[in-house]
Amino acid sequence: MRNAMQSLLSQQVIEDACEWAIMHGVAFRQADNTARHCPFSIAPMTMKRDVYEHLLKVTPLITKLISQVSEDHDFLQASLGDLAKADPFFGRLMSLHQQAHGDGNDRRYPARQPLLLMRTDFMDDRQHGAKVIEFNGIAAGMGPFGQRATEFHAYMQSQWPATYQHWLEESHAVPAENQGLVQLAYAIATAAKKIQADFNAKGKPTFLMVVQKNEDNVYDQHLLEVELQKLGLRTVRRTFEQLSTQLSTGENHRLVLDGVGAVDVAYLRAGYQYSDYWVPELNESICCHTLSQTRLFIEQHHVALNATISQQLATSKSMQMQLTMMTAQDYARWGLNLEEALLVKSVLAEMKPVNNTTIEWFNTQAIKHEWVLKNQGEGGGHCVFGEDISAKLAQLLFGDYDAWALMQRLYPHEREKPTIAVRDGTQKLVDDLVSEIGLFTAYFNGEPVTQLKGYAGYLIRSKPASENEGGIHSGKGILDSLTLVD
Fold this sequence. Notes:
By secondary structure, the protein is α+β, with helices and mostly antiparallel strands. About 35% of the residues lie in helices and about 25% in strands.
C-alpha cells in the first residue's frame, strides 16, 4: 500500500486538474449555487482501433434505423401496445402519440421536423465484443462533457506529461478525436436555419431548450448553448411548466414563445419521467395531463424537434428488444440493405421478453450472472442483476411483465493498469476500472446532419467493475476519454 500511496498525485496536480474542470464548465451546480467539478479519470482508457472504427461505422446506421422506425407510426402503435398497458408513463406517451398522429391516414397537423440527437451506449465485452447497452433518444446529453474530457486529457498530456504517461494504460496509445460539442451544435444550427428558411424569416434562429426545474446538470447544457450562440443562434431555456402558459401558434403553424418570438428548434432535456410533467399546484385528476399536453402542443407545429414522442418510443428498451429479436431481413421495412442490417445486428446484445416461459427458463436453466433485468427507466437505478433477478421476477404481477426485459449482461475489459479517479477534489486509486462508450449521432428528417456523416463525437464513462451504477451524475462513474491502439 505504501508504494501505491507514494505513486499518487501531488496536491498541486489535483488542484490544477480540478480548477481546469471548473474553469471549462465540467461541473454540477450545487443547491447553494456553487459548482463542484465532475468526477474524472486522470488519464484516458484504451480501445483497439478496429473495435472503435467498427462502432463509428455501425452507430450512424443504428440512428438511420431508429429514425425510420420513429416515423413508422402504425408500427409503433401496433408493437408497443402491451408496453403501454404495463408501464403507465409509456401509456401516457402512447396516448400522446395517438393524439399527434391518429390513424395512419390522419394528418391533422403540419409535420414537426424530427431532429434525432441520439447517444448509443456500448460496452466492449471480453467475450462477445462491443455490444449496445441502450439507445438514448431523449435528453441524450453530456456530449459537451465528452469533448471536454478529451480536451482535459490533452491538457494533462501537455502540462503534466510525466503524470499523464505514468497513468496512461498504453504508452503508444493515440487520443481519439472528439467533436461532441461542436458537431451537436452544428447539427442543431443546420436544422434551425432550415426551419427559418421555410418561413423566409430573418434574424437569429431561436433554439429552445426544455429543462427540468432546479436542475443541477446545467453546465453541460450551457456549454451547448454557448456553442450555438457562436453559430449565430439565440438560445432560451424554459421548463414545461413555464411553457404551458407561454406558447402560442403563429402564421403557418409557427411555434411562438411569449417575449421571444418564433422558435426554430425545440430540444428536450426533460420529459423522460413523470416528474418532469408534474405540478402539485395543478391538482390534476389525471396525473401530468397539462404539461404533457404542452409537449403535444409543440409537436403540432412546424419546428425542428428533439425528441419527438415517437423518437422516445422508438428508443425504448421494449423497442430495443423487438429490434434485437428481428432478423436482419426485417430491417428492409425501414430502408436498410442486408449489409447495413447485419452491421446493426452485430452489436445488439441478446434480449428476452419477460413472460411465464422465460421466467421458468431463468429460474431453472439460466446462468444468472450472465443476465440483467431492465425496466423502461432512463438513467441509473433501473437494473437488477444476478441472483436478485429471480426475487424481482417473483414480485412482478402478470400485468407488469411487458415493462421489463432480460438482457445479456456485458462484462467489459478491465483497465490493464490502475488509474486515479478524482471526485470532490479527492483522489482514489482504482484498479478494476471498466468503461462504457456512448457515441453521438444526429439525423434531421431522416438524413445525417453532421460534418462526419451523422457521427457527432463520444462520451466515455468509467466505473469500478464492482459497481453496478456507472452514471456520472447518478452513479459511481467518472468522466473519461479514449485512446486507440493498433
